[in-house]
Design goal:
Keywords: Membrane, Transmembrane, Transmembrane helix
Oligomer: single chain
Strand content: under 5%
Number of helices: 7
Order of helices and strands: HHHHHHH
Radius of gyration: 22 Å
Number of domains: 1
Number of strands: 0
Pfam families: DUF308
Low-confidence stretches: none
InterPro entries: Acid_resist_chaperone_HdeD, DUF308_memb
Transmembrane segments: 12-32, 38-58, 70-90, 96-118, 130-151, 157-179
Distance between the termini: 8 Å
Helix content: over 70%
Mean pLDDT: 89
Largest sheet: none
Protein name: Membrane protein
Length: 185
Amino acid sequence: MTTPLLQLAGRYWWVLAVRGVIAVVLGVIVLVAPGAGLAFVLALVAAYLVVDGITALAHAAAERRAGRPWGGWAFQGVVAVVAGILTLVWPGATALVLLYIVGIWAVVGGLAAVLSALALRRHGARSGWVWVLVFGIAAVVFGVSLLVAPVAGILTLLWLVGVWALIAGVLLLTAAFAVRRAARS
């Protein structure tokens, strides 16, 4: 006897399988041809930004017709559409800016973690502070390495995305066939 949820999952197991195949293909593309993988990922991000911006603008128009505040939705929509277009027009610059943002975020977060670890130690923490310190130092090293060697940083991030996509794809495919098998039995 199967439950309604298992019946539903059994009917749509193929959705997991499609997601798995897409993830595996993305992983292979990124690992075999990182430049093409980066272009593909940036095109997806650009498309998402444009579609998201258009829907936000449509929401703004609906809010305006209803006499409700709409400026925030309009601003968000315009920014998203412009960001999407800029990503399509200048994909290399977009990737570099994103890399710098991640690098700066890692350095700032790492420095905050180092200061927190030292404060914990100063206030008598006997354990735990060392791991916060190690995390902080690792984050600073990671961030500085991205900022100093951006090309190597982009390549490393792409490889991580590629490996993640392969693993996620295999897991999704495994889950899809397990759900299908469970629903049939």
